[in-house]
Amino acid sequence: MNTRTRLPVVLLLDDEPNVTAGLKRALHNDPWNILTAATVGGAFDILARENVDVVVSDERMPGMSGSQFLTEIRKKYPHTIRMILSGQADLEAAVRAINEGEVYRFLLKPCNPADLRITIRQALEHKQLVELSRKLLREYEKKQSILDELERANPGITHIETDESGAICLDEEDEELAMDLADLLREMQAHVS
Question: pTM for the full model?
Answer without folding.
Answer: 0.71
